[in-house]
Design brief:
By secondary structure, the chain is an alpha+beta fold. Strands 8-5-7-6-10-9 form a 6-stranded mixed β-sheet, with no helix packed on it. The longest helix has 20 residues. The two termini are 30 Å apart.
Length: 391
């Protein structure tokens, strides 16, 4: 067996593939940008009004005289006349400033009589209430860098430059194979010795937290040939996850089936609880994770290992790793890293009851996984422990 850290390092060393695809701007939100982007033009690309009001030439105004209203400009509908001294135009927010105008007085600070205005703003200065060309970005400026998470604001920002497609780091194609002769589908009749298959559902929900949908899901019997056939059908995935049949029992065929399907084993068995029989291998560019069948082991290994592999594709950060003080004491044997279901509150973390790998009632209430280091045996109240948030 290898240590948890060795397992993490070996997985990281195999996570070299990264898929870049071009997508529409409308579909880019939530992905990570895979290119540097530069402004194709000045933004704003013309001098524009920042307020509803009246535009005029500050230098041609004596500070007291009335100004004649010579026309109107609204956003998208310009004033094309000549702005002569002693005149102003009615202008609205976002409209282009006409030649000859350099200042806008807001409509609340004028007195209008028929076709003339008197400016009542004592604090008005040249250039007031104008968004100057290029005041946001200049043509050629780098506007977003590779590695930027495309938030709604980022998408809106890029749309303002007329971009309709861009390169992003694509989600990996994830396939799931759940193995077990005892498994039946929800809706089937529950008979003695059978259980409802739950691991694929838990994994689908966990992937949904990452905005990923599995591209294939299979449930297969505990027969080597059937498992091999399922593996071969799914080795086109970027990440293949199997559940069950990975230990050393008489009916645990997964490791042997993977070997016969030419999957190169990187490691099998990790010094941890739960999930000790955890297996990781590679086939060409496919990362293969074979997880023990107990539901808590499946989700623990997914959050602790598979998520990091997914990050290597998407470059996104999903769950925080933090440190928090324990609320209670805990004892364990040396030699295994323990992953315990926990609940956080008021800056502390509590170990939940029911830590056995087959028990999901406690996992259903957990918002984190507590990691207790391999060689330490006694943990006291207020000891600082590593915590992986999973909510």
């Amino acid at each position: 067996m290898i240590s948890v850290q060795e397992a993490r390092n070996l997985i990281a060393g195999c996570c070299k593939a990264r898929k870049i695809k071009e997508t529409s701007l409308q579909s880019a939100g939530g992905y990570v940008l895979a290119e540097n982007l530069c402004a194709p033009f000045d933004s704003p690309h013309f001098n524009q009004s920042a307020m509803d009001g009246y535009a005029f030439s500050y230098e041609d105004w004596d500070g007291k005289s009335e100004l004649e209203i010579a026309g109107e400009a609204q956003a998208g509908n310009n004033f094309y006349g000549v702005l002569s001294p002693g005149t102003a135009i009615r202008i609205f927010t976002g409209a282009e400033l006409p030649p000859g105008a350099d200042t806008i007085v807001i409509q609340e600070n004028v007195e209008k009589t028929e076709n003339r205005i008197i400016i009542k703003d004592k604090k008005l200065v040249k250039g007031s209430n104008i968004r100057l060309r290029g005041s946001q970005t200049k043509k050629g400026d780098e506007i977003l860098k590779e590695g930027h998470l495309l938030t709604p604001a980022s998408v809106s920002f890029l749309a303002g430059f007329g971009l309709n497609s861009l390169k992003i780091f694509a989600n990996p194609a994830v396939h799931i194979i759940a193995t077990g002769k005892e498994l039946i589908k929800p809706g089937d009749t529950l008979t003695s010795g059978k259980i409802f298959e739950s691991n694929s559902h838990g994994l689908q929900a966990a992937l949904k937290q990452l905005d990923i949908s599995p591209t294939a899901i299979e449930i297969t019997d505990d027969e080597e040939e059937k498992i091999m056939n399922a593996i071969q059908r799914n080795l086109d995935a970027d990440i293949l996850i199997l559940t069950g049949g990975v230990s050393v029992g008489d009916y645990d065929f997964v490791a042997t089936a993977l070997e016969k399907c030419c999957v190169q084993k990187v490691f099998h068995k990790v010094k941890q609880k739960p999930g000790k029989p955890f297996y990781f291998g590679i086939h060409n560019q496919t990362l293969v994770f074979a997880l023990p069948g107990n539901p808590a082991s499946v989700l623990t290994c997914f959050y602790e290992y598979v998520v990091d592999a997914i990050i290597s594709f998407t470059t996104k950060k999903y769950f925080k790793r933090i440190q928090m003080p324990l609320t209670t004491e805990y004892s364990k044997k040396a030699g295994l890293t323990f992953f315990l279901k926990g609940k956080t509150a008021s800056g502390t973390v509590s170990i939940l009851e029911g830590q056995e790998s087959y028990k999901m009632n406690s996992f259903a209430m957990a918002d984190c996984i507590i990691e207790l280091e391999e060689e330490k045996t006694e943990f006291k109240k207020s000891d600082i422990v590593n915590v992986l948030m999973i909510d």
